[in-house]
Amino acid sequence: MMESESHTVLTTREACQYLRISRPTYLKYVYEGKIRAKKVGKGWKVLKSELERFLRGERFILERRKYPRFPVDLPIDYTLMENGNADVGSVTNASEGGLMVFLNERMDVGTKMVVYVPFILDAEAMGVKATCRVVWRDFGAVAGGSRYQYGLQFMDIGQEDVHKLRKLGGQMSGQLPPS
Questions:
Q1: Cα 45 to Cα 40: distance, rounded to the nearest angstrom
Q2: What predicted TM-score, i.e. pTM, was given to this entire model?
Q3: Does some domain include residue 63?
Q4: What is the distance between the alpha carbons of residues 125 and 159, in angstroms, rounded to a whole number?
Q5: Rounded to an integer, what distance in angstroms lies between the CA atom of residue 149 and that of residue 134?
Q6: Domain range for residue 17?
Q7: What is the mean pLDDT of the segment spanning 165-169?
Q8: CB count in 10 Å sphere of residue 113
Q9: For position 30, what pLDDT does the model report?
Q10: Which residues on neighbouring strands pair with residue 60, listed in sequence order?
């Protein structure tokens, strides 16, 4: 079976020749994460397609999130578990792991709440309900200080609601969600 040109695996020496750079420069790029290579035995191996990406000047951005975010503009109703206070806000992005929201009240990291996010999916009104906790906050996000930005992590969310979020994410990005 013949290997595709872009899937060709190169050694450090071959990669240096292909890029026409010195070994120390090549290894510097590998250690800095500018070139994605894999340590195999005593040497580094790299795909030729990775070197082509590097030469085109395309940056490699590692997605560290377990669940990729997708942008939305949705309302949110929330009730604080500590005191039962309820209010509304807006969701600016969502994922299967949580939400980024703007809320009217100032709260601490660790604050727990029950949220409901209504939306229309496949011409049907629906929404997701979950228990969340604040995992980060940014009080300087909005001028005037009347709204506060928070990252909410889902603590308890039903599988059906996770499926709705996947489907919403697929609809927002123009892709079909995984089942």
A1: 7
A2: 0.61
A3: no
A4: 18
A5: 10
A6: 5-55
A7: 87
A8: 25
A9: 86
A10: none
